[in-house]
Amino acid sequence: MATAPLIIMDPAVASPAVIAATAHANDNLRSWTDDRRAKLLLASCAALMPHGEWHRAYHSYGYGEGFRYIGYRVDALTAIRDEHGQRALDLYHAEGDPAYAVFALHCQSASVTDAIDTACEAALAAKMEG
């Protein structure tokens, strides 16, 4: 684990707001799953998986089916992820291109369904070992 934040933009163009957004990082920018509230909710989901459903998403290029979890814990996790994304987008609008890396990393972060799956797999692995 790194001991200092990794700042991926040129210091000459990075503003104090962009630097402040990355100051809490270790190896990369903090993911929404590192939020204290998200960790508690993901642990709850790992202990007792939420219900899920198959849904069909329609796009301009067609449609596809996918699985997603449903329920109040999933709604809370979605709100946390959206909050982190909104902060990254606001920073990008305020600072411009130097802050795009913050927003791009959020866009590439795990979805709520993927985060729940990862938490459940880790909990199952821990049970199998011990």
What's a concise summary of this model?
The protein has 130 residues and is α+β, with helices and mostly antiparallel strands. Helices cover 53% and strands 12% of the residues.
Detailed description of the structure:
This protein has 130 residues and is an alpha+beta fold. Helices cover 53% and strands 12% of the residues. It has a two-stranded antiparallel sheet. Strand 1 (52-59) and strand 2 (62-69) form a beta hairpin. Helix 2 packs across helix 5 (112-129) and helix 3 (72-95) runs antiparallel to helix 4. It is globular and about 50 Å long.
Helix tally equals 5
Shape label: globular
Overall helicity: 40-55%
Derived structural class = alpha+beta
The biggest sheet amounts to: 2 strands, antiparallel
Estimated radius of gyration: 17 Å
Q: Based on DSSP secondary structure assignment, what is the total number of beta strands?
A: 2
